[in-house]
Design goal:
Thiol Ester Dehydrase, Chain A, 34% strand, 23% helix, five-stranded antiparallel beta sheet, globular, 142 residues, 7 strands, alpha+beta, two-stranded antiparallel sheet
Length: 142
């Protein structure tokens, strides 16, 4: 029997400060977009704003590995649509899958990113992913 899953989706416009002289999204902005969508996904998965995860629960998820493919440019004025899924939850790490496409449905960027769970007071030491986060992320696990 196959397991059904949901995908976190969101969108935003590509604004002028995000583009280079060619009028396309400057490549570091893709990681910025990914992180903005990542923060937004926490409300969907765990019913919390990411700042609550960081400040109230003192849990952070710094990026430790990233692989990306640039497939098509995003231009000034485009609407970027993001899809996020989780492909793995380890003891202390989470692997996220991102897909960014334009308003025409053309996939522009995809990435696999791994974050590690840390206590914000001891940021250099990893900790286990709490059960309540695992349960929330089950909504988007593939």
């Amino acid at each position: 029997m196959s397991r059904s899953f949901m995908t976190f989706t969101s969108s935003r416009r590509i604004d002028f400060p995000m583009v280079d002289l060619a009028g396309i999204a400057y490549y570091p902005k893709f990681w910025d977009l990914a992180h903005r969508f990542f923060e937004e996904s926490w409300h969907y998965t765990c019913n919390l704003h990411y700042n609550e995860v960081l400040q109230k629960y003192k849990i952070g998820f710094p990026l430790v590995h990233s692989e990306a493919s640039f497939l098509h440019p995003l231009k000034y004025g485009d609407t970027v649509f993001c899809k996020i899924n989780v492909s793995n939850i380890g003891n202390s790490s989470i692997t996220w899958s991102y897909e960014l496409s334009n308003q025409d449905g053309k996939i522009c960027w995809s990435a696999i990113q791994t974050t590690v769970c840390t206590n914000m007071d001891l940021i250099t030491e990893k900790t286990n992913v709490p059960d309540w986060i695992r349960e929330g992320l089950e909504k988007i696990i593939i």
